[in-house]
Amino acid sequence: MERKHSLISQCVRTKTINNVMKKSPLSLENIVAKTNVKLGGLNYNIILENYPIDPNVLFIGLGMNHPAGGMADPDGPRVTSVSVLGFSANDGILPNEFIGNFFFQPMSRDENVGVLDTLLVEVLERFKLNRKCAPSRVIFYRSGCSEGAYGSVLRYEIPIIDAVVKKYAPSAPITVIIPSKMHSFRFFKKNINASDRSDDQNIRPGSVIDGVVVNNSYAEFFLNSHLAIQGTAKTPKYTIIYSTEKDASLDMFERWTNALCYDFQIVTSPTSLPAPVYIANRYAERGRQIYNTFPNSAKINKTTGRNKK
């Protein structure tokens, strides 16, 4: 309905309706929050007393979804696969309004984003249209990248980011951060009461580790923003692989990243990843579901990778 006719819809299962009829306030609040966001509204705002976020900072999140296996090509007998690139950015009228979409691109062995220039142009043009100014700084959360691919990102993607951003915002400093859960580190409280619940045994939301276990080659920190209610919390790692900032501190990036984990809008609890990345991953998942269900509706442009309708 939404993709074909551009009509906003909200799918509600019978089980959910039954919960609402039984006077479940949480279910009803969730439906209202989702619908409000779909209609262009915001449910709450983020205010930081220390290190307040400049309203003209552009946050961009990128998430990748790779296929588990090949899919039959409807135009021929060979098997093809596509990667789905989801993205989101606060390029709307309001500073914490994240807008996103997804692209299809041919899957390759490397993890580079083939549509990066197209994506950045779209985001920066929409930012200038809605805000009537250029971004004061650009912070790019580039998810879906393994540590072994850092060199490839630095060689191929950073020059594209630099070139496009300088065209639209020549004086804006650029920072590229790689969030990742693909590591084996686990963090625990020093003193744990075995009789406590799992969420009380885990480290608290907002916990930061930026020494001893971090990479010496890059500015890096671990941030546990979410509340794990079952099992041991898997704390994401954030690696700043590139930055042209001169005055920013690591503490600022840590605080801003943590604040963005409270900006998902649909729920009031913090997410494990900052909103631009979390939303980008959701768009990538949506694109994968659409492609798997309607592969003929999304032809891939071999040059740009953009999905054509």
UniProtKB/TrEMBL annotation:
Please give the Gene Ontology molecular function terms for this protein: nucleic acid binding
- Give the highest taxon in the source lineage: Eukaryota
- Boundaries of every Piwi domain copy: 1-292
Give the matching InterPro entries: Piwi, RNaseH-like_sf, RNaseH_sf
Q: Name one Pfam family in it.
A: Piwi
Name of the molecule in the record = Piwi domain-containing protein
> Organism, per UniProt?
Panagrolaimus superbus
